[in-house]
Design a protein that fits this description.
Helix content: over 70%
CATH class of the largest domain: Mainly Alpha
Order of helices and strands: HEEHHHHHHHHHHHH
CATH superfamily of the largest domain: MetI-like
Number of strands: 2
Shape: globular
Length: 287
């Protein structure tokens, strides 16, 4: 029994140390920093960090641009996440259907955009959207894709292009785990390809779809690379366009204490939304 406990500790300890060092410790440090504020004695006095209690959080909850950015990314997620996961599901079902030849090639081709760093992808698409730089001048002259009305959806297109293949692989892996006996039984019952996909495949890969949705919710609230790059292409993207960009801009002032408070509130909002979605899907599954 003692030997089993030692073996268990041997395998868990490395993960526990890394988890504490790179996850719990930064969270604790951010919470600590958010409880302090910088004060000066006089105009040119030396800056001192003093305990401020919840003063930074009061500033966060009364900061209009920050909550506007929260609403902006929520709108982004409500539209972009279903489109992205719908495309990922459709591509996964297509690869699993047997109608496509060269599955290995298409799996790799769909995944390649995810291998491109987000900043590089945003720069590439920024050039394509720019009226003065894009080779598709007929499109960019007809619609200003970097305007205040369209820039959010231009960024949504970039995120969709990057992450469709990633989510497709997760769903496709789940499809490969379905026993062949299930398909054989469906064929005996007279189910066609569409009926099999709708009544068997999609319900059985629903846990993978829920997982990718949670990842997408977290990623939506953490949107940073695309708006940071698009600020160089469009004046419609401000320093507080998304919550993470607000945190980055605030820390660049620098005001690390307020940035930490923004980060803590954003992390709590992300956890609450993810938890609420999981509870909603579990309740729907119980029915």
């Amino acid at each position: 029994m003692k030997a089993n406990k030692k073996a268990l500790l041997f395998f868990i300890l490395p993960f526990g140390l890394l988890f504490a060092a790179f996850y719990l410790a930064p969270i604790g440090y951010a919470i600590k920093q958010s409880l302090y504020q910088v004060e000066r004695k006089g105009t040119f006095g030396k800056a001192q960090e003093v305990f401020g209690g919840l003063a930074q959080y009061q500033r966060v909850f009364t900061d209009g641009p920050f909550w506007e950015s929260i609403g902006r990314v929520l709108l982004f997620g409500v539209v972009q996440v279903p489109v992205m996961l719908g495309l990922a599901l459709a591509l996964a079902l297509l690869l699993d259907s047997g109608l496509v030849k060269g599955r290995r090639f298409f799996r790799l081709a769909f995944f390649v955009p995810y291998a491109i760093p987000g900043v590089v992808a945003a720069i590439m698409w920024g050039f394509l959207y720019s009226p003065n730089l894009s080779p598709f001048t007929a499109v960019t002259s007809a619609a200003d894709l970097l305007s205040a009305d369209l820039v959010l959806w231009s960024m949504a297109n970039v995120v969709t292009w990057v992450y469709v293949g990633y989510n497709m692989l997760i769903i496709y892996s789940s499809l490969l785990a379905i026993p062949q006996e299930v398909y054989e039984a469906a064929k005996i019952d007279g189910a066609g390809a569409l009926r099999t996909a709708w009544s068997i495949k999609i319900p059985l890969v629903m846990p993978a779809i829920v997982l990718t949705t949670v990842f997408s919710i977290i990623g939506t609230l953490q949107l940073l690379a695309e708006p940071a790059v698009f600020r160089t292409f469009s004046s419609a993207v401000s320093s507080t366009y998304t919550p993470n960009l607000t945190v980055y801009s605030t820390s660049s002032i620098p005001n690390f204490n307020l940035a930490a408070a923004f980060s803590v509130v954003l992390a709590m909002a992300t956890c609450l939304l993810s938890f609420a979605f999981l509870k909603l899907t579990q309740r729907g599954g119980d029915k």
